[in-house]
Design brief:
The chain contains 14 helices and six strands. The protein is of the alpha+beta class. A six-stranded antiparallel β-sheet has the order 3-2-1-6-5-4, with helices on both faces.
Length: 493
C-alpha cells in the first residue's frame, strides 16, 4: 500500500510537471496563431491544442505504464484519464467554446452596435470587465462596456496609454490611473477599476479603427486569448468594410451599364436619322436628275420650235416661258440637293456615337480591394546585460515607408520562428532554461532561423535590427540573455 501511495505521489508530480509544460506549449501555440490569424481567421488551432494535450498524456501513459503492475496499473489509468478529462474539458473545451461563440456573434453582427456588444461579451469572459472604444481622429468614443458607464469621448492627449496603443498598433498594459487612461475613464469605471488595464488595437486596412479595453490583474486577464479576440474583431471589421466597397463598386458598375445602354440607344437613333438623311439626299439627287432631263427636253423643244417655224410669236413666248419654268425648277432642285447635303453632314457630325466595345458588353470599372496590412508595433526591448550587446534601434519616424514595412515583416518572422521553437521543442526549451544553455541545445533551429533572417532582411535593408535576437531574449530566455549560454554568438547586427 505504501508503494501505491509513493507511485500516486510521483504520478501527481509528473502530472503537475506535464501540465506546466503543456501550458507553456499552449502559450506558444497561441502566439503562433496570433501571428497567423491575419491570414486566416479560423484555423485548426482547436485540433492542434487537443493534439498537444493528447500527445502529452500519451507520453505520460507510456512513461509510467511499464512501472505499474497489477491493480496499480488500473489506478494509474484512472488517474491519467481523470487528469486528461479535467485539462481538456476545463481548459480547451471552455476556452474554444467561448472563442467560437464570440467569433460567430462577430460574424453575424448586422450593425455596429451588435458588433460592439459581441466583442464586449467575448472579452468580458476573458477578464474582469471590458469595453470597446471607436476612434474618431484624435478622440476615443466609448461604444459599449460591461460596466455601467455613461457615453464618453476621451481626447487621446489626455490618455497616454490609449494614444500609445493607437500609435504603435500593439497591445498595451498600463496602470488603471487617471494619468494613463484619463480622469474621465477612471471616474466612469468607478472604484472597482483596475488594478491594471489591457488595451488591444482593432486594425482594418492598416489603420486602427477601434480599441478593446479590459481590466483586472495579470493573473485574471487572459492576454493571449484577448489578443486573438481583437484579431478576429479586426478581420470582421475589415470584411465588412470590403463588403461595403464591393457593394458600392457594384452600384457604380450597374450605373455604368445603364449609361452604356443609353449611349447604345442614342447611337441607334443617330444611325436611323443618318439613314433617313441619306434616303432624302438620294431622293433629292433623283429629282435633280429628273429636272435636268426635263430641262434638256425643254431646250430640245425650243430648238425644234425655232428651227421649224417662227410662225407664231405666241408659241415662241410660250416656249420661253416653259424654258424659264424648267430653269426655275432646276434651281429649286439644286437648292434642295445642297440643303439635303448640309442636313446630312450636320446630322452625321452631331450623331457620332460614343465609343462602344466591340463585344457590346459594359466596360467594368476596376475595383481596388485593400489588403489588410499586418502592421504591428516594435517588439519591446529586453533588459540590457553585460554579456550580450543589444541592437541599436533606428528612429521609427525617420524610416521611409518601404523600410518600415521591412521592419514589420522582420518582427513578425522573429515571433513566428521563436514560437515554433517553443512549441515543437518544448522539452529542450525547458532543459535549456534550467541549465542556461538554450543555444547549445537548440543550436540547429536557432542557426537556421538566423541564416534565414540574415538572408531575407539584413542584406536588403541597411537600417535593419536583429529582431530575432530580441525575440530569443524576450520569450525564449524570459528576458534573461544569460540563459542563451556562453556559446551564443550574439546579435547579427
Amino acid at each position: 500500500m505504501e508503494s501505491v501511495t509513493t507511485l500516486t505521489g510521483a504520478l501527481r508530480d509528473a502530472l503537475d510537471q506535464a501540465r506546466d509544460q503543456a501550458l507553456d506549449q499552449l502559450t506558444a501555440a497561441w502566439q503562433l496563431h496570433v501571428a497567423r490569424v491575419e491570414e486566416q481567421l479560423r484555423s485548426n488551432w482547436q485540433d492542434h491544442i487537443a493534439k498537444l494535450v493528447e500527445e502529452r498524456f500519451q507520453e505520460l501513459s507510456e512513461r509510467f505504464g511499464a512501472e505499474l503492475e497489477g491493480s496499480i496499473q488500473e489506478r494509474l489509468k484512472e488517474e491519467v484519464e481523470r487528469a486528461r478529462s479535467q485539462d481538456r474539458r476545463e481548459t480547451a473545451r471552455r476556452l474554444s467554446e467561448h472563442l467560437n461563440a464570440g467569433a460567430r456573434r462577430l460574424r453575424q453582427a448586422g450593425s455596429q452596435e451588435e458588433w460592439s456588444a459581441a466583442l464586449v461579451d467575448a472579452a468580458a469572459g476573458l477578464g474582469r470587465r471590458a469595453a470597446v472604444f471607436t476612434l474618431h481622429e484624435e478622440t476615443a468614443r466609448l461604444e459599449r462596456s460591461s460596466f455601467d458607464a455613461p457615453l464618453l469621448e476621451i481626447p487621446l492627449e489626455r490618455a497616454p496609454a490609449l494614444a500609445e496603443c493607437v500609435r504603435n498598433q500593439e497591445p498595451v498594459v498600463a496602470a488603471a490611473s487617471a494619468g494613463e487612461v484619463s480622469p474621465e475613464l477612471v471616474a466612469a469605471a468607478g472604484p472597482e477599476c483596475g488594478p491594471r488595464v489591457f488595451l488591444f488595437p482593432i486594425v482594418a486596412a492598416g489603420k486602427p479603427a477601434a480599441l478593446l479595453y479590459a481590466e483586472g490583474s495579470t493573473d485574471v486577464v487572459n492576454v493571449e486569448a484577448l489578443e486573438l479576440v481583437s484579431a478576429m474583431a479586426s478581420a470582421v471589421w475589415e470584411a465588412r468594410a470590403n463588403a461595403g466597397a464591393v457593394e458600392r463598386a457594384s452600384a457604380e458598375a450597374e450605373a455604368s451599364a445603364k449609361s452604356l445602354e443609353k449611349a447604345k440607344a442614342e447611337a441607334v437613333a443617330a444611325t436611323t436619322a443618318l439613314e433617313e438623311s441619306r434616303a432624302e439626299a438620294a431622293s433629292a439627287a433623283e429629282a435633280l436628275e429628273k429636272a435636268k432631263a426635263e430641262a434638256t427636253a425643254s431646250a430640245d423643244a425650243l430648238e425644234q420650235a425655232k428651227a421649224e417655224t417662227a410662225a407664231s410669236a405666241t408659241a415662241l413666248e410660250q416656249a420661253k416661258a416653259e424654258a424659264a419654268a424648267a430653269a426655275e425648277a432646276l434651281e429649286q432642285a439644286r437648292a434642295a440637293v445642297e440643303s439635303a447635303g448640309a442636313s446630312m453632314n450636320g446630322t452625321a457630325t452631331a450623331a457620332a456615337p460614343s465609343p462602344v466595345p466591340e463585344d457590346g458588353e459594359p466596360v467594368e470599372t476596376p475595383v481596388t480591394v485593400l489588403t489588410p496590412a499586418q502592421i504591428v508595433g516594435e517588439i519591446p526591448p529586453p533588459a540590457a546585460t553585460t554579456m550580450h550587446r543589444q541592437p541599436t534601434r533606428p528612429n521609427w519616424a525617420d524610416l521611409p515607408p518601404d523600410e518600415q514595412d521591412q521592419h514589420l515583416k522582420a518582427q513578425r518572422f522573429a515571433r513566428v520562428q521563436v514560437a515554433e521553437i517553443r512549441l515543437f521543442k518544448s522539452g529542450l526549451v525547458k532543459r535549456g532554461r534550467a541549465e542556461g544553455e538554450l543555444y547549445k541545445l537548440l543550436r540547429e533551429d536557432i542557426d537556421r532561423s538566423r541564416q534565414t533572417y540574415e538572408a531575407q532582411f539584413l542584406h536588403s535593408c541597411t537600417s535593419m535590427v536583429d529582431y530575432l535576437h530580441l525575440e530569443l531574449v524576450r520569450t525564449l530566455a524570459n528576458e534573461d540573455p544569460e540563459m542563451l549560454g556562453g556559446e551564443y554568438p550574439g546579435p547579427l547586427a
